């Protein structure tokens, strides 16, 4: 379904007075508000093709109805989000769950919704029906050369799909590791993985990037072959300039200082992209900002500081994506909430008085430094985020409008109640 722009305009008209009051107050509180609004308008967060249906755990999955049945319907869903918030202007495809049948038709459909194709994602964590070998004991790390080759060839095929769609990066996440002590020789697993990654890297076009995502545990519970940022860094440094580390917020051991990781990776010019979600225990894949909004702000604070130091374009030079699972919420509402939380954290980070912070740090004024950060975090920037949407033709309150328009009911009417999108 397509949202009529007059419905968005009518929604905004109704809310305009109350929005203007809030905005005027915010403008009086934040010195660089106009520059922040402009940056918010430019900032886009990709939606992965696997996030549009309900997710699940190994215990069960409870579909909510109206889930997209095809890649075309997934693109339409991301188009809906983008129409509502003008901040979800890209889709990230997972191969082989979402192999395009006709590139031109898919590209035309995406263009109709003002969507670009973000990083393409390979999958060597599952066996496919037509694959010759199993990844039961790993893919790029496998002791069997023929299995490694199958996994390398798959990644190269994913790059080819991406080239056809106009994507410019490949994300590699490996489930490789071991479940029991003694199962693997760690060094051999590393060396096999490096050799496989080098073969994939060779197939990258000149203007592409390879993102190597790390994860501390799961599905393997004793060792993971790319387990943390140091291990990912060790690989990408050997691979070359086009290889970067990808940080997924849920892929750390408890209490890891993710903002420090981000800062150092940026310093080394090895941060490539980001997967947003939130967690309490492990890779919980909950809505971004749902549990630890202060941590999300501190991460953005380092992102902004580090990108500005390197003269990077916030919107274009790193890959931004949501990687969450929507087990009990309507996936589209959940994604709107995640994008909103990310935009708020980004706006707060942009509002930090950086000059004052540098001075406080130079003077070892710990109290002042804390005041500066917490002041930015506690300032309500929601009116700036809403204003960015208003100026780009999106909705002042996306979730509210989504509900008023009964979007899910319409989607169930179109697609049926018992549809289930491909994904986990
Ligand atoms: Mn991820």
- Give the fraction of residues assigned to helices: 40-55%
CATH-defined fold name = TIM Barrel
Low-confidence parts:
none
What oligomeric state do the depicted chains represent? Answer: single chain
Structure description:
InterPro entries: L-rhamnose_isomerase (IPR050337), Xyl_isomerase-like_sf (IPR036237), Xyl_isomerase-like_TIM-brl (IPR013022). Residues 100-285 form the Xylose isomerase-like TIM barrel domain. This protein has 15 helices and 13 strands. By secondary structure, the chain is of the alpha/beta class. The chain has one domain (7-415): TIM Barrel, CATH 3.20.20.150. α4 links the parallel β4 (90-92) and β5. α9 (293-309) crosses α10. The longest helix is centred in the N-terminal third of the chain and has 25 residues, at 5-29. It is globular. The model has no long low-confidence stretch (mean pLDDT 97). Bound molecules: manganese (II) ion (MN). The site of manganese (II) ion has 5 residues, from loops.
Keywords:
isomerase, alpha/beta, isomerase activity, binds manganese (II) ion, manganese, TIM Barrel, 424 residues, 3-stranded parallel beta sheet, 15 helices, Sugar isomerase, globular
What would a concise description of this structure say?
Residues 100-285 form the Xylose isomerase-like TIM barrel domain. The chain has helices spanning 5-29, 33-42, 71-85, 103-112, 145-165, 186-202, 229-239, 258-267, 293-309, 331-350, 354-362, 366-378, 382-391, 398-404, 407-415; strands at 47-48, 56-57, 60-61, 90-92, 116-117, 120-121, 169-173, 177-178, 209-213, 223-224, 243-248, 271-276, 319-322. It contains 15 helices and 13 strands.
